Amino acid sequence: MKKTLEFRAHDGEIEDIALGPDNKVVTAGRDFQCCVWQQDQLVTGLRWHENLPGIPDKAYRYQACRDSGTFLGLGTVTGSVAIHIAFSLQRLYYVKEAHGIVVTDVAFVPESRPGRELLGGHEAALLSVAVDSRCKLHLLPSRRSLPVWLLLLLCAGLIVATILLLQLAFPGFL
């Protein structure tokens, strides 16, 4: 094996590292940060004081991370579990103290046939393992979206309303 790249990712130890799509790397460090990297460039990151402002930095630390390509699963030293959108790190799911103590690893259920059966109607499933000798399954509910026909109807209504307003503002417009 040959080293191809070296850079300083965190202040202190790195707790976990995961490879993501498009050659992205996710790291969770003892400096209370979780970072997404492309080569040696920081793409985006999470800090506790920005992500969860009511919770002091020193009480929590990212311990485990996994990137499914669409989602980023995180576990903490206090037993909390979260799922974020991988490219924006917007939090979609969070369970405070899902485990009694340190989450040692997280893993997404694969998108194989048995995995899809386990998912049911949910968007993603994350397994978490902790020092409390428990393994828990976290299901991310499917996010609701507007049906295409309703979106087209709203667009048509917006166009008609714009034409009517223009006609009122500028008589003889049409």
UniProtKB/TrEMBL annotation:
Pfam families documented for this protein: WD40
The keyword Transmembrane helix is assigned to this record: yes
Membrane-spanning segments: 146-170
Key word Ligase present: no
Subcellular localization, as worded in the UniProt entry: Endoplasmic reticulum membrane
Domain of life per record: Eukaryota
A molecular function GO annotation: guanyl-nucleotide exchange factor activity
Record membrane topology: Single-pass membrane protein
Any single GO CC term annotated in Swiss-Prot or TrEMBL for this entry: endoplasmic reticulum membrane
Gene Ontology biological-process annotations: endoplasmic reticulum to Golgi vesicle-mediated transport; protein transport; regulation of COPII vesicle coating
Keywords: Endoplasmic reticulum, ER-Golgi transport, Membrane, Protein transport, Repeat, Transmembrane, Transmembrane helix, Transport, WD repeat
Protein name: PREB protein
Species of origin: Erithacus rubecula
